[in-house]
Input
Amino acid sequence: MLRALILGITGQDGSYLAELLLAHGYEVHGVVRRTSTLDRSRLRHLYEDSTIYKKRLFLHYADLDDPTTLRRVLTNVRPREIYHLAGQSHVGMSFEIPESTCELTAMGTLRLLEMIRDLPEAPKLFHASSSEIFGRPTQSPQDEQTRHAPVNPYGCAKAFATQMVAIYRESIGLFACNGIMYNHESPRRGENFVTRKICRAAVAIKLGRETELVLGDTSAQRDWGDARDYVMGMWLTLQHHTAEDFIFATGRLHSVQDVVEQAFKTVKLNWQDHVRTDERLLRRTEPLRLVGNPEKARRLLGWEPKTSFEELISEMTHAELSALSAV
Output
């Protein structure tokens, strides 16, 4: 049985990846942080299943900034594949906590690489990089050769981690890959991300629990895809015969305004009656035209995004409707 370790298993991507690997017959181990408010809601259906939890799914306490605990997990589990999805991933928050963002995202990745290097049999590593490493790119769409030019602490930390993964692959010979992930969403997206905020607000207004939605720059554009499609790309990356970096993106741009209109359309409301902007919510620096070229992933991995933007936002809105109606 193949054995995989997921760092960041309680997150959106980690929970979908756990499901995917279990479906492919893996024994799945996940690293969780020991905190008093640990939220494992995305995994509840798995660890409440007695046929899966502690039989094919195992959770371990460890942390990227606590090398001893992480090294112990690696030594005991001896995974064949590692999926590194952990770290502080909210761009806006990275301006408020830049040091801890860099500590977890940049130095945490370096520490992990050093631990893998010291193992008797080095596992394959997938590192979830981000389109934020490109910042304000000189070319559009971006591909795997586009120069890194981050414009926020999160992007800077990810650029460091991405470069280190490439260095350990090319200089030390680790099977280490970067998946440069463009924005991807799902009903499991965190509530502090704008897509989830919009879908939840549209439903709350529909149900009469709120009256308005306040946003910053609704003209900001992103290349938005479905998290489940992108998780498939992670797995395909480590099944490829050589260690390489891949862009995972849809190749299409949509604006925050598009999210607003699709969410309110789903609940049959006129967004103009409920949405207003507040300049205090504008970001200090906004990346420009971050849209990816996934041609390499299509050609070498057979990867394709399957869910349209409209389907994704509608599904997220319906999920909020089900959740809020039940409260």
User: Anything to note?
Assistant: The CA atoms of residues 178 and 245 lie 5 Å apart. The mean pLDDT is 93. The domain at 3-185+226-248 is CATH 3.40.50.720 (Rossmann fold).
